[in-house]
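Sequence in, structure out. First:
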Amino acid sequence: MIGCSDDSALSLKKANKAGGKQLWNWWIAFPLVLILIACIWAGVANTSFGALELLRVNAAKSSRVDATTSAEGVATGAQIAVTALGRLEPLGEIAHVSVPAFLKDERVTEVFVKQGAWVKRGQVLCALEARTRLLSSLREAQSAVRVADAKLSKIKAGAKLGEIEAQKAAIANVQYELNNKLLAQDVLIGRLKNELDFNVDEAKRYQNLHQSGAISTSQYDSKQTLMRSSRALLSEAVSERKRLEETLTARVAESKYTLSKIAEVRDVDVSVAIAELEEAMAKLTRVRTDLDLASVRSSQDGRILKLNVRPGEIVTEKGIADIGLTSEMVVVADVHQSDIDKVTIGQRAEISSATFEKKIHGFVKSIGWQVQRQSVYAQDPSASSDARVIEVKIFIDKPDRKFVQGLTNLQVEVAIACAGAKALTQSPSQL
């Protein structure tokens, strides 16, 4: 009995031990099974959601195709509308106001407008630092013009009347001096001639007396010396008269030449003065032009879409401001090259966007001449980003323009009615 009991206890102990191991294994396996079930459920859910989304997209595409087909399916099977993406722009495009190259690095001192303000053509937008320097140059140029003009007037008028009269008086004085000195010299020469004649007669008489021995040799020699002295004085007086006549006559001629020079108005002097005046005026015009450029003005009527500078900043390559005529907006539609043959000037167009509630209308004003890459892209990532399009400008009807003011560069959808279409039933689609 005891042996049996021991065997039974041993068996029971082994059985309890095995049961404990099974219970432990179950607690480990149960969470793993739950995790596995959750993963399988998530995969099934994602697969189902993806399948549903795929079915929804296919259904939408199918409905869009059906709508297109129904829209195009007129009695003749012709296309009703050409759809395209486009953008809003001010009439005449956006003007980028900047400064000339020589004022590129100038600093802005004052800004007279604000972003969003309406400006007129020629209105001053801002002033540059160069304005102060150019104002000084302007005053110098104006003074130079006045000096050149006065010089020309002086040359044309000739010498002053007082200068001419003074020169005439100088000529008269020299002539009077000439006459008086020549007269005095003639008197002197006449007296010296008389003395010479007397001394010649005395010398001859003393010569006869000396030959007869009535007088001494010294007395004879003194008379001969006196005769020769008189002849020398006469010769000297004649030479002095000649010198005076030549000198004073030259002075008279010089004075007369000066008078003619003063009174003469030469064409060449006038031409030189005119050239100097024109040069000064050209410089003044250039300075005025530069000064006007130092006050940056609007190139057109429009609204300040963007102001690129503030007082104290240096003008960069962005320029001063962007201006657009927002009161008259146009739509630039990127029409695919395969649809351009269906578009003609004057066709009606319908423009829509999520930004404004109602659809607005207009007409085709112009069709571009160049095929280019698409500039407006749809949000659909599967859409082509290398489409070849032609820009078509659409003028918005006057009653609808108020809805798009201030929406420059807004992306819009355009539907252009084809020839023969009665209505636009198709909503613009993305390219």
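Second:
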Amino acid sequence: MNWTTHWHATAPSPTHPDRNEDSWWIAASGQAAAVIDGMGGYRRQSADGEVGGEHAAQLATTVLREMLDEWRNDATLEAAKQQLRMVIEAVNRRIWETLNWSGVIPVAENRGNQAASEISVGVAMTVAVAVEGGARALMAQHGDTHGYVYKAELGLLQVTEDQDRLMWDRLNGVLRPDEAHAISEAIDHFDGVNLTTVRDQRVMRYFFDKNIFGALGVAPEASETGWSPIKLAAGDRIALLSDGAYANLSVTEIQNLVSQPDRPAETVLALAKQRSQLARFPDPNNPFAPFNMRATQDDMTVVVVEVGDVSE
């Protein structure tokens, strides 16, 4: 089975409409795709201009294009993991050496004499490739970009797991696996308004905590990759979203939009942009003013891929 139809949509944050720190990539072969979220809150000043998250995202996209553009869907799962890990290490190395000066950032770009870790740029990234003749997809995860599969009979399934505070606390014994799963489910289904669905106070704490780990380009060696294989059938859809897109939407809303027959990426982006314009909290002076706690102003990117049948 081949990935036969591809859609994408992206938009910069309204807080910096002149630049988009997200990026996307679809292989020339059509059998691989990625969403990349550039990171770098501190914008360094270099002789060639500013250095920010958009440069890291663009560099990661260039590496994907150079190394994976002709990806075929006939690799085994293990062979695909090995090749993707090579690509991930190349992304990490190129950003670390080219944009972050291998951790020795020149004084001219570090007027505040800050630690390199505080002013480095990097990326969160989810890459999806077809393997085993298209019978499965393999997703490689760094950070908190999302990878989903939509199946008509099962709905929307999040395939990747965020490398965030929730995962960190689960891995370090602060939360039991069942507690972390329940919190994640509550966050995903929260509509941003009805607080009766999130009675556990820990849900909102993790909902608002945006700390992540696993970013690429911020250290000499790439961190551990999160691997997620999933079986595919004709008619399934793969959806890749940056955090600016999914943060504004509940999983139910994403499912309803990803399953749309025409231009699903654009419809997801449109609702996310609309939601991002709302106030995040109720107006104490106007209780009838619309608000939504999911409202997040950030760069947004959506890629949707449809799986064709064997004959396509």
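Remark: The two ends are 7 Å apart (CA to CA).
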